[in-house]
């Protein structure tokens, strides 16, 4: 039987060191790093590979979606750590209820990658 043991997207950066620092500031962990690639651990079971380049401005087409227990708490965390003040070009939007029912905090990383921190409001206890 064929199985998939792991899945990690490749995420581009414009400034490799700045992007590594951005994700660490968010609370993610740098598992290992080389000049060509590094592994970022979200600390909740998922990882991605950060690249030191942004071929054809790919970052502006890439989105990463994280299902979380509270979009508001993630938004508050990003504001508390002053993410947009520390990293030029980053943006954090307050949670917004989407027509398809998810409450989402949008975050743009320094290269323009769009991160969705989404929750299902009806699952709140």
Short characterization:
The protein is of the alpha+beta class.
Your description of this structure?
This protein has helices at residues 16-26, 71-80, 83-86; strands spanning 10-11, 29-33, 38-41, 47-50, 63-67, 91-92, 96-97, 103-108, 114-119. The protein has 125 residues and is of the alpha+beta class. Strands 5, 6, 7, 8 and 9 form a five-stranded mixed beta sheet that branches. The longest helix has 11 residues, at 16-26. The radius of gyration is 15 Å and the shape is globular. The mean pLDDT is 95.
Protein traits:
125 residues, alpha+beta, five-stranded mixed β-sheet, four-stranded mixed β-sheet, 3 helices, 20% helix, 29% strand
Strands, helices and their partners?
Layout: E1 10-11, H1 16-26, E2 29-33, E3 38-41, E4 47-50, E5 63-67, H2 71-80, H3 83-86, E6 91-92, E7 96-97, E8 103-108, E9 114-119
Parallel strand pairs: 1-4, 5-9
Antiparallel strand pairs: 2-3, 3-4, 6-8, 7-8, 8-9
Rg result: 15 Å
Total beta strands: 9
Beta fraction of the residues?
A: 25-35%
Mean pLDDT value: 95
List low-confidence stretches.
none
- Euclidean distance between termini CA atoms: 39 Å
């Amino acid at each position: 039987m064929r199985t998939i043991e792991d899945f990690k997207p490749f995420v581009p950066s414009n400034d490799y060191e700045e992007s590594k620092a951005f994700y660490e500031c968010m609370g993610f962990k740098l598992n290992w790093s080389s000049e060509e690639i590094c592994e970022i651990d979200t600390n909740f079971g998922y990882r991605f590979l950060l690249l030191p380049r942004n071929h054809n401005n790919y970052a502006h087409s890439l989105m990463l979606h994280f299902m979380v227990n509270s979009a508001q708490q993630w938004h508050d965390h990003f504001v508390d750590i002053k993410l947009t003040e520390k990293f030029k070009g980053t943006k954090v939007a307050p949670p917004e209820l989407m027509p398809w029912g998810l409450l989402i905090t949008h975050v743009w990383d320094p290269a323009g990658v769009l991160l969705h921190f989404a929750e299902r409001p009806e699952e709140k206890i």
